Amino acid sequence: xxxxxxxxxxxxxxxxxxxxxxxxxxxxxxxxxxxxxxxxxxxxxxxxxxxxxxxxxxxxxxxxxxxxxxxxxxxxxxxxxxxxxxxxxxxxxxxxxxxxxxxxxxxxxxxxxxxxxxxxxxxxxxxxxxxxxxxxxxxxxxxxxxxxxxxxxxxxxxxxxxxxxxxxxxxxxxxxxxxxxxxx
Length: 184
Description:
The protein is an all-alpha fold. It has a domain at 1-96: Rna Polymerase Sigma Factor, Chain: A (Orthogonal Bundle). It contains 8 helices and no strands. The chain is globular, with a radius of gyration of 18 Å. The termini are far apart.
């Protein structure tokens, strides 16, 4: 969503316009859900986080200011805090081992589902080996679909630091994949 349109929709939603709130929800909910699912690995928990994120966004929209972090960063910071709350409440690690439930209804063939599960399990294992900040930058950038500026705002880092962190994370993943392939 372009910046001008986003600002108009946020202002309209803050004034109680349901269509504007629905437009914001439609634009950001899938991205917040993917981010939460990547962090929590449980579709039900990810949906709860996404729903609660938007409940808080709509509740606190009057207090949102365009200074500093942008709207996306604000939304994803709320989501990130909720993910932390869920992880703390459950007493488990951030990355689980079952992210496939969500796609079972979409996969048209058993072969595609088996390939997805295998790939997802491998990716979860690889991501789990990364330091938390590297894992977080990849999830925000690729699962959440945020740009480097927005990711930096969520993580409270400069865009340059996000790019460097992302580079190191991808480099570490490449090395781990190469090592796995050499062992196989």
